[in-house]
Each structure stands twice: as C-alpha cells, then as structure tokens.
Design goal:
336 residues; mainly beta
Length: 336
C-alpha cells in the first residue's frame, strides 16, 4: 500500500509526504518506508524499516531521521526557534502473551543535532548557530494491552493501555516512565463514553520534557504550551451521532452523512521538581483549579474516506469561572 502528497512553496521549495509498505501474502515479512520532505533531505522526516512476524516473537529494525522545531523567545525585535534533528536506529522485539497483551523490548541509538535560528523583524537578516551534537542510546521495555473495537472516527468499545520505561546513557542520561490508559463504553451502539488517563515522569542528569496542549492532548491551550519533567492528563468525552444525513442543493450541493459530535472535559498539568498543587479551595465545598489547567467544550468529526476531519471548541475554566477566551481547533486524525 502507499500514500503520497506534494506541494511547492517559494520559501522552502518542494515539500510533501509519502508512505509505502510491501508484504508477502501471509504478512510474515513487511518492508515499510515513509518520508515528509521539507526543502532538503537533510532537514526532512525519513523512516525505513523491516518487520518479521514469522514466529511468535516478532522483531523489527528501523532507521530514521526526524526534526523537531521549538519556538524561542529571543527578543521583541527578533523571531527565533531551536531545531533538533534526530538520526538513529531502533531494534525491537515483541512477544504476545495472548491476542490482546504483549511485551516489547527495544533499543534506540541516535544522535541529536541542535541549531538555533534567529531572524530580525526589521532588517530581515538571519543567523543560524550550532549547539553541537549529542550521542546516546536508550533501551526500553513496555507492556501493552489492547482489545479496542473501532468505529468510523475512532474507538467505540474496549480498552487499551501502555506502560513503558526507558533509560538513556551517553551524552544524555535520564530515566523516564509513562503510562497511557484508555477505556471506551459502548452505549446502545450509538453513543460512546471515552476516558483517557496519561501520566509521565523523567529523572536523571538530563530529564526529558513532556509537552502537552493542543487538539490531541489538552484542548484550551496552544500546542505544547505546558512543559515539565512531570505531567498528567485526563480526557473525558461523550460521543454521539450529530448529523445522520444532510443533503443541500443550494447554494452549494452538499451531502453530509454520519457526522459525529462530542462533549468533552480535559484537565492536566506539567511541572518540574518544584511543588505542584493542582487544586485549592475557595471556602467550604468550593473547589478551584490552582496549578493545573482544565477546559470543556464541543466537537464534531467527519470521516471523508481517506482521513478524519475534526473540529473542537474549548472553553478554559478553573471550575469556578471562565479563565480565558474560547479556542477553536481544526485537526486531522482519529479520536483518542
């Protein structure tokens, strides 16, 4: 199977993405590759790999390069961001206990090339400075359970969970543990109650940062707005059929079917080693959010065959009053 998209922009040149996979008839051997091109190969996301399912213990090997960009506050008259390019490889073993549970063992070995880009708003002059390259390896182990049943826009029944632990040695040294648990309740084959709980912590000489915020994590915030070496997040949703069928002839011929809606409440936070106080009280029986963040709102989802379109409207709150203006999100992808 394969999928491809392309575009041209005057400031970066050719850009696009493609993915392809080849398998034998039984699915025991799979070759796969993916790329998101952004101007040049050295600045793009690239993945190639091989997966062997011939025996009960599956194994895979992959080589990759991917890039992360983070906005920096440099000065009022300058724009800046840090670019991190990861290059490395991964070897992984996966051993199932049964159809729904498995354990994964793996090793990542990679380098991180870091550079800072600055550009003046007034003169237009730009400057790129290198911050050097880091080399490290990180073995990991994970327990995975998954018996989810999917619908047109996301899971509709079952549960899935992943508990993972990793430790890095080399130029970076840290230990991290993350748990992600999700439960879905199917109600009369039309409605779904969904709950997702995520928590993570990182320790060591170079603890890793968790970034939450945005349409796929904590709605009501900007993407990655909260950062810290500790994080937690709780998402709750009630999903229901919003538009079963709508056909219009004017002013545009429009035919919508199976549009799903959702009511949600999100709460979460990220912090460093200092004290974190998620809640406080304003008098007897009045609970208010202190250091955490929460929002509630409404969403709509539409499956157009090859992708899922999502819209969310989120209202931040501290459980007593509205704290910020509403935020709108348009995104593409399955529901959590």
């Amino acid at each position: 199977m394969s999928a491809t998209g392309a575009m041209y922009s005057s400031n970066v040149g050719i850009a696009g993405n493609t993915s392809v996979a080849f398998s034998d008839v039984l699915g025991n051997h799979t070759l796969f590759g993916a790329a998101s091109i952004y101007g040049s190969l050295s600045q793009s996301d690239i993945l190639i790999g091989y997966l062997n399912r011939q025996h009960r213990t599956n194994w895979s090997i992959a080589l990759y390069q991917f890039r992360n960009d983070f906005l920096l506050f440099v000065a009022e008259e300058e724009a800046g961001f840090e670019s991190q390019i990861y290059r490395g490889g991964q070897v992984m073993l996966s051993r199932p206990f049964d159809r729904f549970r498995r354990i994964e063992l793996g090793l990542d070995a990679m380098s991180i090339n870091r550079a800072v880009f600055r550009q003046s708003y007034y003169s237009g002059q730009s400057e790129t400075s290198s911050k050097g390259t880091l080399y490290f390896a990180s073995p990991f182990v994970a327990f995975v359970a998954d018996n989810v049943l999917f619908g047109s826009t996301g899971p509709i029944d079952g549960m899935r969970a992943r508990l993972s632990v990793e430790h890095a040695v080399g130029d970076l040294s840290y230990s991290s543990a993350t748990i992600d648990a999700r439960k879905y309740f199917n109600i009369r084959h039309r409605y779904v109650a969904a709950i997702r709980a995520v928590s993570g912590a990182s320790r060591g000489r170079d603890p890793q940062l968790y970034r939450i915020g945005g349409a796929t994590t904590l709605r009501g915030l900007g993407y990655g707005e909260l950062t810290g070496t500790n994080a937690f997040m709780l998402n709750t949703e009630f999903r229901f059929p919003l538009i079963e069928r709508l056909k219009m002839g004017w002013p545009l011929p429009l035919h919508l079917r199976n549009v799903r809606g959702s009511l949600f409440f999100d709460i979460g936070g990220a912090w460093h080693a200092d004290q974190f106080r998620p809640f406080t009280t304003d008098g007897p029986g009045v609970l208010r959010i202190e250091d955490a963040f929460a929002a509630y709102g409404f969403g709509a989802r539409l499956n157009v065959g090859f992708l899922i379109l999502k819209y969310d409207l989120a209202q931040p709150t501290d459980l007593v009053s509205h704290t910020e203006k509403m935020r709108h999100y348009f995104s593409i992808g399955s529901e959590f």
